[in-house]
């Protein structure tokens, strides 16, 4: 079947069906009709045939869209030794497989089949907000899930480093960061991946471990990640560009939008090396950008706006002496008025 051109594949089948009708080839005609969706049931007298019985089960699963009916097909195909036929025929009924994936159940199909375009029409995008308590969105829908601190850090790390299909991370890097003293880090990685995939309703075949060029890596096979860190950096970049063009009011709005993305310090309960480094870098950037913004506010006479941002940031960076000093400067300016 031509996976990228279902219409063309259907035309080939219709030609074959016409030929079989002409020469009265009965059971094979039923197969083609079934694959083309032109029959809803296989006649009882033909169910003694293993292949037609298989097709009967597939058509039933398509009609009911029940996972249990799909599982019956798998059991039958294994028992009768017709998995190869099933793998070819199921390509004509992608909606059955997509329904199983959507419900978070195993398809038991080979990864090569699952990676075919016919099963990956819908682009899956996860938006991870970690500049504060972790929030996970799947295709713009907030997921009501509860992740452990380690799961939060792991998910954020792959979102940042495996943001699109084709990107990967060395498995050794994950071992060293999350399980530096473990004797069986692979088992821990496998367990963590399985748990996260289940919680965020991620199709199992879209992230997996593979060996390439002698390196074992974790690969992204077909999803997209975005984060609020990217939003923060892009928003501030736009603000600076506007400020340089002399459009302070527009720049100020962009700055405020960027600072609002920072809800709290990330990874408060995490103490692995990557989480600590990431938190330090992000909080350092927040402090630096805040100081720069406040200085621009002073130049443009927006002291009240500067004060609001400093108060917000002081809650995230309670030990920042620079932020405290700037708040004192504003307080002194007010007392002189």
Model description:
It is a single chain. The protein has helices at 6-22, 26-35, 50-64, 67-80, 83-89, 94-102, 111-114, 149-161, 171-178, 185-199, 228-244, 248-261, 273-299, 303-316, 321-336; strands at 124-129, 135-138, 141-142, 168-170, 207-212, 215-220, 223-227. The chain has 337 residues and is of the alpha+beta class. The strands form 2 sheets. It has a 4-stranded mixed β-sheet. A hairpin with a 2-residue loop joins strand 2 (135-138) and strand 3. The protein is elongated. Mean pLDDT is 86; it is low at 1-5, 12-17 and 19-26.
Compile the SSE list and pairings.
Elements: H1 6-22, H2 26-35, H3 50-64, H4 67-80, H5 83-89, H6 94-102, H7 111-114, E1 124-129, E2 135-138, E3 141-142, H8 149-161, E4 168-170, H9 171-178, H10 185-199, E5 207-212, E6 215-220, E7 223-227, H11 228-244, H12 248-261, H13 273-299, H14 303-316, H15 321-336
Helix pairs in contact: 1-2, 2-3, 3-4, 11-12, 13-14, 14-15
């Amino acid at each position: 079947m031509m996976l990228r051109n279902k219409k063309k594949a259907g035309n080939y089948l219709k030609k074959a069906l016409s030929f079989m009708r002409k020469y009265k080839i009965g059971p094979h005609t039923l197969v083609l009709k079934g694959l083309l969706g032109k029959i809803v049931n296989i006649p009882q007298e033909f169910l003694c045939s293993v292949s037609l019985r298989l097709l009967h089960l597939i058509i039933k699963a398509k009609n009911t869209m029940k996972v249990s009916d799909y599982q019956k097909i798998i059991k039958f195909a294994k028992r009768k030794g017709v998995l190869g036929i099933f793998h070819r025929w199921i390509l004509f009924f992608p909606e059955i497989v997509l329904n199983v994936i959507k419900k978070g159940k195993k398809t038991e199909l080979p990864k090569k089949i699952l990676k075919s375009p016919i099963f990956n029409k819908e682009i899956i995008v996860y938006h991870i907000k970690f500049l504060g308590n972790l929030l996970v969105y799947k295709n713009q829908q907030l997921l009501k899930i509860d992740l452990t601190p380690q799961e939060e850090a792991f998910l954020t790390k792959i979102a940042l480093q495996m943001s699109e299909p084709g990107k990967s991370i060395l498995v050794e890097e994950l071992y060293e960061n999350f399980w530096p003293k473990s004797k069986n880090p692979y088992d821990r990685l496998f367990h963590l991946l399985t748990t996260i995939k289940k919680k965020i309703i991620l199709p199992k075949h879209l992230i997996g471990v593979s060996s390439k060029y002698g390196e074992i890596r974790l690969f992204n096979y077909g999803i997209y990640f975005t984060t609020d860190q990217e939003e923060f950096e892009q928003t501030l970049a736009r603000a600076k560009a506007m400020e340089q063009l002399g459009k302070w009011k527009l720049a100020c709005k962009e700055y405020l939008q960027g600072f609002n993305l920072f809800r709290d310090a990330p990874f408060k309960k995490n103490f692995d090396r990557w989480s600590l480094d990431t938190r330090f870098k992000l909080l350092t950037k927040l402090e630096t950008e805040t100081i720069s913004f406040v200085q621009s506010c002073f130049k443009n006479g927006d002291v009240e706006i500067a004060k609001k941002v400093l108060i917000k940031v002081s809650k995230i960076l309670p030990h920042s002496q620079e932020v405290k000093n700037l708040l004192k400067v504003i307080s002194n300016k007010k007392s002189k008025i």
